[in-house]
Amino acid sequence: MNVKALFGAGLLAASLSTAGIAQAAPVPYEMDMAHSAVVFNIDHLGFSNMFGRFDSFKGDVQFDADNIENSSVNISIDTESVNTFHGKRNEHLASPDFFNAAEFPEMTFESTKITKTGDNTATLEGDLTLLGVTKPVSLDLVINKVGPHPFTKQQMAGFTATGTVKRSDFGMNYGLPAIGDEVHLQIDVEAAPK
Questions:
Q1: Residue 79 contacts by C-beta under 8 Å, 6 or more apart in sequence?
Q2: Which of the pair, 144 or 19, is modelled with greater confidence?
């Protein structure tokens, strides 16, 4: 085999190897619900920040450890499960003034694009559907850790996504402007391969 043929064969092998890597499928991961959370905070009359969470949600994570941009996440949140650690306020938040949980029992986030921004950071873009309105949102994503669990030795991955959403964009206008329009979100996910 001459040098030109050898060089060509090497290029072909390299391109096939790269193509195989680029086409590797992400792995389905299952959320560890004991260590995952959807939390938020919002300005209350300028006096304080009110914190809350959603007690019930589920999600689908497709994770490519070698290429985060090939990953995806879909989360469905039970709006009636909103919990601000105050019973009457929780009832009000589930009412038509806010989440209208009877008519819209779920809000969803479906990722559309992940763009790597650093060694363990990325921008997570997706569609948020709330009160029947779908809007694009962008979240800052941190890949906290990927590796074996120190106790079970099972492979795990952990992520934190943060961002701000304007509730008025979805038609949730009650109490504006005294009660803040900007809702600060944090989604923490710990997951293992299915």
A1: 54, 94, 99, 100, 101, 104, 105, 106, 107
A2: 144
Instruction: Kindly state the tokens that stand for 119.
Output: 């060694």
Tokens representing 100 are 């209208």
Residue closest to 68 by CA, chosen among 108, 5, 17, 119: 119
**In CATH, which superfamily holds the domain spanning 25-193?**
Lipid/polyisoprenoid-binding, YceI-like (2.40.128.110)
Domain boundaries, the chain: 25-193
- Summarize pLDDT for 16-44 with one digit per residue, the tens: 334 444 457 899 999 999 999 999 999 99
Q: Are 190 and 32 in contact (CB under 8 A)?
A: yes
Q: Please classify residue 56 by burial: count the beta carbons closer than 10 Å to its beta carbon, then call 0-12 exposed, 13-18 middle and 19+ buried.
A: middle
pTM metric for this prediction: 0.84
Q: How far apart are CA 194 and CA 58, in angstroms?
A: 14
**DSSP annotation string for 112-147:** EEEEE-SSSEEEEEEEEEETTEEEEEEEEEEEEEEE
